Amino acid sequence: MHVSFVSDKLERQFQTEKSLVRAFGDRAKRIMMRLDLLKAAKCLADVPSTPPPRRHELKGDRAGCFAVDVTGNWRLVFRPNPHPAPLAPDGGYYLQAITAITVIVVEDYH
Domain range for residue 13? Predict the structure, then answer.
């Protein structure tokens, strides 16, 4: 999948392992693993919804976005690109059609 970032600052944080460690500390290695998984997927349907990555759709003020688990309560949050994503006949998202994402944030939103 093609991965972009919501801001230049976030993109700089993801550029190197050193910048990831500086920004996210001991979570950096797991963040790199999740980003590699997302980049290797052909579409969002290829990202497992089971742990450890546990791709899941968000609700409430983050409706239309997705996340994958990093560690503990920390999540890598992204939205389909273009946004909003295409809907399937059952009303859910057509995950096979989502081939690009924009990373929004890495945070503990719990």
Answer: 2-108
How many independent structural domains does the chain possess?
1
pLDDT (tens digit per residue) in 61-90: 999 999 999 999 999 999 999 888 888 888
In this structure, are residues 92 and 86 in contact, taking their beta carbons and an 8 Å threshold?
no
What's the predicted TM-score (pTM) here? 0.93
Give the residues across from 75 on adjacent strands.
Answer: 69, 107
Q: In what order do the strands lie in the sheet with 74-80?
A: 2-5, 100-108, 74-80, 66-69, 56-57
Q: What DSSP letter does each residue of 65-101 carry, written as one string?
A: -EEEE-STTEEEEEEESSSSPPBPTTSSB-GGG--EE
Helices (H), 3-85: 8-13, 17-24, 28-40
CATH number at residue 64: 3.30.2310.20
Which residue bears the tokens 């389909």? 80
